[in-house]
Specification:
The chain is mainly α. It has a single domain, classed as MFS general substrate transporter like domains (Growth Hormone, Chain: A). Helix content is 79%, strand content 0%. The protein contains 25 helices and no strands. It is globular and about 70 Å long.
Length: 472
């Protein structure tokens, strides 16, 4: 009897952790304005609210330092399951919190969960997916994060604070119950010398009855592990040694860091967290909560479109289109706020439709490429020998930039004008377009080994002195 292929089911259940992360990330937008009202059971100042909104990405830096070694030691599946603990504890404590300090502590705890999920889930999906649907499966992470945002934006405005906490408690439980039955990454099992278990995992993931049906793919994984072992292993020390010796590995990591950093500096996180507040500032006649729900829905729809298109159209066309659209619309958003601060009321009243329109169009184009494909590109470009370290490094880097963007958004807006951050984000989107055009290769339908070979070839384009030779 033919087995049911589990790779898509494994992807859906694994990304439930991303959906939970999306709920915690989107929590700030609908809840912060209410916690600053005098009727709230915990009344926050604007500064306290900004700390709660921004500290999560900063805290996520801490587990990012350890996710690479932990994946190598215990596997991405077990580490993802462990991420449910901080989410559950944070929701439970939040339910009974009575002060700013306690709320801040819950954000710190949930930040640890987010710091695990963000780099580990894409790595798990890259290592269980077939080449033909790898882009679809990895980009589904952002779809699920967007769905989490929709749930939060749709529920939070219409229930009390305590009921919202109880709703959030259910999602880490749902993740554990469904993901518990999924197989471990075959790459991890092979690295640990558990070849028979890797064969069984591949058979379950591909829906095959016989080991010979997955032998070709298993041999690819074995060759990758053998090459890694020849270079000294797959631990954190060996990854650093590989970076020291290999110009190709250094180049791949640098490209991944710059690409991911520029994506964050396009401003999506800052605008998403502050969406409700942005609409309040804009003076739009549309209800700010409804506007935020619209934005969340748009993010999910565009991320789903990206998931469906990425393995058909390719990575580069989606990315380039995304950066062009993002730069145009975020700059236009800045123009509106500039006119609001420096022009007559009649002018901005006539443009009352612009803030929501620009944000919707920004998130459509940004999520259609940049947001959906960040982790796909990162995990495809870096070789398996440093993938865990690279994911940790990119997660740390992007967490720091996310914290800076969110925290400084309100500070810069108050000091220099609301339009200034939007124009900065637009300039970064233009920079991301240029960087992607010249330095990000197309990876659609190619094996990870073929992509790594191209990156090695590019690194060897210049004469090096580290003793490397281009390889297949």
């Amino acid at each position: 009897m033919r087995r049911f292929p589990l790779q898509v089911v494994a992807a859906v259940t694994a990304t439930l952790a991303y959906m939970t992360s999306g709920m915690f990330t989107a929590w700030n937008a609908p809840v912060m304005p209410r916690l600053q009202q005098n009727t709230s059971h915990i009344v926050l100042t604007a500064d306290q609210a900004s700390w709660i909104s921004s500290v999560g990405p900063l805290v996520a830096v801490v587990p990012n330092f350890f996710t690479g070694p932990l994946v190598g030691a215990m596997g991405s599946r077990k580490l993802l399951l462990a991420s449910a603990v901080p989410f559950f504890v944070a929701s439970l404590w939040q339910r009974f919190a009575t002060s700013f300090g306690e709320l801040l502590a819950t954000i710190v705890i949930s930040g640890f969960g987010i710091g695990i999920v963000i780099p580990v889930s894409p790595q798990y999906l890259v290592e269980i997916a077939e080449d033909r649907i790898r882009g679809l499966m990895v980009s589904s992470c952002m779809v699920m994060m967007g769905i989490g945002g929709i749930l939060m934006s749709s529920v939070a405005p219409y229930v009390d604070f305590f009921t919202l906490c109880e709703v959030m408690l259910a999602f880490p439980v749902l993740f554990v119950v469904t993901f518990w039955w999924m197989p471990e990454s075959p790459y991890y099992l092979v690295a640990k010398g558990r070849t028979e278990e890797a064969t069984e995992a591949l058979m379950r993931l591909r829906g095959k009855d016989h080991a010979k049906d997955v032998d070709g793919e298993l041999q690819q994984i074995l060759r990758s592990a053998e090459q890694r072992d020849q270079k000294g292993g797959s631990g954190i020390a060996e990854a650093f040694q590989e970076l020291r010796k290999s110009s190709a590995a250094r180049r791949a990591l640098l490209v991944a860091l710059i690409f991911a950093g520029l994506n964050i500096l396009c401003g999506s996180a800052a605008m998403g967290v502050n969406a409700t507040q942005i609409f309040l500032w804009s003076g739009s006649s549309m209800d700010s909560d409804i506007s935020t729900i619209i934005i969340s829905c748009i993010q999910v729809v565009s991320s789903m479109a990206a998931s469906l298109l990425v393995d058909r159209v390719g990575r580069r066309p989606l990315l380039l289109m995304s950066f062009v659209g993002a730069s145009v619309f975020v700059i236009a958003e800045g123009v509106y706020f500039y006119l609001r601060e420096h022009s007559t009321t009649d002018v901005t009243d006539a443009l009352g439709w612009l803030p929501l329109t620009c944000l919707v169009c920004f998130f459509v184009t940004y999520n259609l490429g940049a947001n959906a494909l960040t982790w796909t590109v990162v995990n495809e470009l870096v070789p398996s020998s440093i993938r865990g370290l690279a994911n940790s490094a990119v997660a740390v880097w992007t967490a720091l930039l996310t914290f800076a963007c969110i925290k400084l958004f309100q500070v810069v807006s108050s000091a220099l004008g609301t339009y200034v951050p939007f124009w900065f984000f637009g300039a970064c989107a233009i920079g991301d377009f240029v960087f992607t055009f010249f330095l990000i290769p197309e990876t659609k339908g190619r094996t990870l080994e073929e992509i790594n070979a191209e990156m090695r070839g590019k690194a060897m384009g210049n004469v090096t002195t580290d003793g490397e030779k281009p390889g297949p």
